[in-house]
Give the backbone structure.
Amino acid sequence: MRYKNIILAALVLFCATSIAYSSQTLVNAEVSVDVTGKDAADARSQAMAKAQVDGLLDLLGRFTLPGQAQEIVAGLDPRKMGAMVRGTEVLEEKIAENRYRARLLVSFDGDDISALVSQAHTDKTKIDVAPPLGAFLIIPAYEENGIPMLWEADNVWRAVWRKVGIEINSGDVVVPYGDAKDAAALDVAGVSSATYASMVPLISRYGVSDVVIVQAKVTQNPDLVLEIVKRRFNRTQNEVNLLTYRADPQETKDMLLARAARDIAERIQFKKTEELSDTKNALGGERHEIMMLANISTLSSWTELRKKLSTLPMVDKIDVLAISPQQVDIMVYYRGTPESLVAGINAQKIRLVQNPNYWVISRD
């Protein structure tokens, strides 16, 4: 009960304006919607439903790990979600023949939101440790002569990756089928802005732990050059690399693409082996705990600190003890030595001050 009250107090403090009405605490989320329907009435109806989902994602996203809010909302019955909404205020709207655009303030029952956050923080399978490393889902986007491609049949980059996926019999590399279900989950326009949350349908379909988006662009002016933006992300990590491959004198475009794909696949496999070894070493040994006081200036600064701590392989669990506008008191459970934890914190560029009974952390 004390933990629930702490979360509720934080929600009241940070989630915009909160008011007491009929013994209920309301927490608000401001969202913008832009929906097209059969007519204006249909567009407005769809927009109101979308606003409820977006508002709930916004609130939960402030107190859970990246992607976890999406998982919670996906598992909610629509009727249960609707019952949590206490009202929707139109702040600004524009209505056309079949389009509805608006800025809305959606109010939710504070106790219901607090219960969802409490459950998320006690669900060990979701937040205590980083997700186990599994297979990598390769999303091969391609551009040549100014034409972007993804699931199209003439995407030669995807064809190359399908061959590489077959060559790697360990199952580490998975290339999507490219069928209607994949196209419905992701189109070429959404590749650059894709996130773990938006990729959940594909992650669930193929049973992978990580997504690797490889956006390749071929130019020949005058040399044949392949430029690739490689982005790998999972529930707790997001890393970006820029790679450039230049063709050898006797190398064709197809040969260059194949060389680049195999090189990237080897890097992925090496990285996985390295991370599995690090995780195994970090999780060994006796479990310890240390109280930390996180100095914060905004909610986003706390979210960033928690995310960085949660990604450390030696950290088993983070419990929130108390929240105030400038400070969050937490208990961090970890394995290994204090020195290894300090090294990990420093590597994440978190400012750290060690006191005998507690540590103080803040954004660097």
Observations:
- Residues 143 and 217 are 5 Å apart (CA to CA).
- Residues 1-10, 12-24, 124-131 have pLDDT under 50 and may be disordered.
- The longest helix spans residues 253-283.
